[in-house]
Amino acid sequence: MNDIFVAFDTETTDFPWKGGRLIELAGVKFRLSSGLVIGNFQTFVDPGPDALMNPDAFEVHGIPLEDARQGAPFKDAFLQFHSFANGAPLVAHNASFETQVLKREFELADMPSPGGTIFCTMLMAKKHWSERSGKGAHTLGNLSELIGVDSSGWHRALADSMMCKELFLHMKREAVA
Q1: Beta sheet of 90-92, edge-to-edge order
Q2: What's the whole-number mean pLDDT along residues 54-76?
Q3: In terms of Cα–Cα distance, which of 113, 112, 104, 111 is closest to 21?
Q4: Which helix or strand (DSSP H or E) is residue 57 part of?
Q5: From the CA atom positions of the chain, what is the Rg in Å?
């Protein structure tokens, strides 16, 4: 079994199915055996000149479009992330959403999707804490607080990646996956 994993997260201008674009990509590389962080990756991603920011999305992450436009184009940003991950299995909270974000960007950049293993902490949490229900029961912030992890900085990609890592480690220690 792999000992090195990369928890990652994205921030966007809107939902991908509403034309949203990626504006931030981050990851935390860590050892499963010890929880030791090996490295961090974080970059703004230029969404292009035609991108519009949904005010609701801005309210969530607080990233101005002007800041994101200082980032690298998606192709360059993803190649840097791919090099950082170096083939390690990925971990994401709500992996379905994260893969939709990346799939849209791959299509727009005319790039093939690299594939690979992605573990979803949201699905793992629904299994582990099946008694929790209702709106927000399995959000990254609420679950982080449940296991004693500070959720300040929630909704920025690097902070979310770190919380995702901690949630993954917690559930792995309790043999959820």
Answers
A1: 37-44, 22-31, 4-12, 90-92, 118-120
A2: 96
A3: 104
A4: helix 55-61
A5: 16
Total residue length of the chain? 177
Question: Could you tell me how far CA 133 lies from the centroid of its own chain?
Answer: 23
One DSSP character per residue, 30-52 reads: EETTT--EEEEEEEEB---TT--
Amino acid at position 93, single letter: H
Strands 118-120 and 90-92: parallel
Interval 120-169: pLDDT, tens:
999 999 988 878 777 777 888 888 888 888 888 778 999 999 999 999 99
Domains within the chain, CATH numbers bracketed: 4-173 (3.30.420.10)
Q: Which amino acid is at 15?
A: F
Q: Alpha helix (H) ranges present in 50-156?
A: 55-61, 65-68, 74-85, 95-108, 121-128, 140-146
pLDDT single digits (tens) 20-49: 999 999 999 999 999 999 999 999 999 999
The two tokens of residue 172 are 């792995």
Could you tell me if 98 and 78 are in contact, meaning their C-beta atoms sit under 8 angstroms apart? no
Strands 37-44 and 4-12: unpaired
pLDDT in tens, 96-108: 999 999 999 999 9
How far is Cα 78 from Cα 71, in angstroms, rounded to an integer?
A: 12
Which amino acid type is present at position 177?
A
